[in-house]
Structure formats: structure tokens, C-alpha cells
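Proteins fold reproducibly. Next comes an illustrative record:
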Amino acid sequence: MTRRRDLLRRAALAVACAVALANCAELERQGQLFGPTPTPPTRPALSKTDNRSSVQHKELLAQFGGEYQAVAAEHYLNDILVKLAQASETPGQTAYKVTILNTPVVNAFALPSGNLYVTRGLLALAGDASEAAAVMAHEIGHVTLRHSALRAEKEREAALISQAATVIQSRQKGEEERSKQRLSVASFSRQQEIDADETGVRVIARAGFDPYGAARFLTALGRSSELRAALYGKRKDSGFDITSTHPSTPERVTRAITVARQIGAPGIGNRDRAGYLAAINGVAFGDDPMEGFVRDRKFTHPRLRFAFAAPEGFLLENSSEAVFGVRQADNEALRLDTVRNPPSESLEAYVASGWVDGLLPSSVRKIDVNGLPAVTAVARAGEWNFRLAVIQSGEYLYRLIFAARALTDQAEKEFMDSIATFRRITPEEAREAHGLKLSIVTAGTADTAESLAARMTTPNRPLEYFRLLNGLDESEPVVAGERYKIVTE
């Protein structure tokens, strides 16, 4: 799904464009959802056996937070994989085994070795066994259809054509040819996604699952994107992005429903919602607390042992790259990241070393932040104004950047008050840190979507998240006696 990362990009773009961050943490590379996992051309080919020590296996674990231990969920998914293998286009050829990845990102991959990966974020979004089966069958479809190899071949072919065009024709013609070839590769990749969708629908139907599970999951995926857009100010894409390797979700939903209807009317096949919910009960939800977590406006990192609070009205989101924040009005943003403290260099020298563009040298000031040495400064770039703070704690520098179109006295005060909240946390506070989890509850006769959502521990819009996680439309009531997902501490 997301190439890594779908995080507050539009608001943080102001920070990224105007501030040249030298030494940023490496971006976690997330593949697009349901995309065939690329095989680096310089890497050795994988064997057909379940080689758990393979290069790609290690890379995926490193990129997606490592392996998450959830015995019940793993056994349940592996049982589904046995059924899918028997119903696949190549029955008996490869025995797949699942690995759950410790990340809230919604994603899945399959390797020719038989390793299949799903994230715990995907487990939270899927509503029943048929939806989880659809995702895994789609990934296996990429492998059986040899999509990674075919796409790599298409990309090499496009590169050769573009290079030849540049040599034979003018530079402008070469650029036009490169643009045409990029569109060709994107279209090719989108068709692969549709082919894998259709293959997956047919396979899960043969395995006895509800063939409409794929359409339901893709619908939930679209709703998830819309909710994030509403929360963090990202505009919804109006159609195909020619640089994307995936078709728009509405088209995929339509195609998945069309294939399912060719198999039978809605209501056929097994969904096993109760069994699926029992298997994922207690699975972690959201950020891994040891890698930092958000509660309301507060961010805490138990492993690095620090905490800070954003100004009122900010929404925060954590990633391995940085913590991003934005106000709903989308005219203020923030970013917090960390780098190792350069040896034998003062904080003032570091700030003036070219780390930021548009720095106003006269604005550099030394301050104390809860006993930690720090420097603040102001930078300007285009229509954006930046209040910066670099705080030294042990071997690390923590860099806070606040961006505003107009750095008013009120905004200045709020930003400085937020900087003042940065502090070291005690070992006891670090040990007490705990994350969120999925809890499966049974609706009572007096329960409503609102009453169950009120039991949710989510930073924002619990009712919308409750409906999203449980596949409920706005007008759809909860049913007494039915089981539902909620998020608790």
C-alpha cells in the first residue's frame, strides 16, 4: 500500500521544501498495498523453499518493525493459507507460511519462497476470514503470475527505450519519451493489480470463502484513506496518478464485485467473522509504544526516554522518519526528528552549519529546556516562517521545527510553550508505557455505535474509527449479541 508513508505529507511538505534537513533518519520503505515485492537485481534469487533467513525476509522485517508475535492470529491465518494453497492456480507447488509484521501500516506481501507477510494494521482493518483470505490470495496471485519479474523486465525495457531516445533525438524528445515510458510502466503495474485481484477472488471462492470479501476489504481501505484525509488535511486523489503502481480503489472494488457476481449472488461462501475476531482479539493497535506513541497532543518515546506536547489543536502522527503534526486549518505544521550529536560542535555552530535554509543568524538564542541545553532560531522561506529548536540530550540532538504562514505573537508563544514541554522521562515512566490493542466486545441490547465508540481509546474521531474497523455505514446500527472491534489500552 503505501509506499511508506502516508503521513501528514501535505502539511509537512512546507517543512520539507523550505528546510533542508541534512542527516534525517532513513525513510522506512513501504511498498504499495498489494504490490508485488520487488526483487533487487543485484540480490541472489530466492529458492522455492521457505528460506526464513533470506535477504528479502530480513529486509521486510527491518522495514516493517520486525515480527509481531500473535500465536492465535498466526495459526488462524496459516489455516486459511492451507485452504488457499489447495484452491490456487498451482496447487501443491508452494507451501505458504504467514509472518505478522509489527506495524500499523496496512500492507501485505508474498515471496516465491513461500513467505507471506501481513501487517497487524491489515489485521485490524480486515473484518472477517474472507477479507483476510482475499488479501493473501491476491499476494499469492502476484507470485504465481510472476508479476515482480515481469514488471522488472518492463522497467528495464522502458529505461533502454528512454536512453536510446535521448541519444538518437534531442534532450527534449528524450524527456517526452521517458514520460511516455513511465506512463506505460504505471499502466502495466495497474493491470497487474487488477489481474491479481481477479485471481484472488476466484481462489477464495474455490477455497469456500465469500468471494465478496475482496470488495469489502478494498472498500474499507478506501474509507480508511478518506478518514485520514479528513483528519490530516490531505486532499483525496481525483483519479489515476500516472506515477502510481496501483489503480484507484473504486475501480478495484467495481472489478472485484464483477468477478464475484460471475461466481454467485451475495451470501455465498464462508465469512467466519466470529472466528476471525476471536483470533485477532488482543492484537496490538497503532504505534509500537517502544518506538514512540501519540496520546492526544502528547508524544512519548520510552526507548529514547523523552516526551513533548504539541500546541493545542495539533494532530500528531509518528513514523520511523519523524513525528509530524498539523493543525486542522492546515496553516501550521511541525516536525520532530533526531540525529546524533556531531562531536566537538556547539549547538550554535550546528544550527548555522547549513542544516536549514533561510536561517536568520541574528535570531539564534541559547536556552535551557528542563535542564537540557538548547538553541532556538527563526528561518524564512517563501510564504512560510519557521521557529526552530535544537535540544541536546546525551548523544542525540532533537530537532523541532514549527512552520506557520504567519508567525504571529500568539503562534510564537504557543510554539515556545510547546518547546518547553520537551523533557526526559524517568525509567519508571518508560517501563509503564503501554500501547493500544484490539478488544472484541459483544453489543448489549442498549448499545449503539456511539456507546461502543465511547469505550474506544483513539486520538481522534472514535466514532468514525469504530465504524471503519467494523465495516459499518453511518446509518447502520449495531446488533445486540454481535461482536465488534474496539480499541483499548
In short: The CA atoms of residues 5 and 23 lie 19 Å apart.
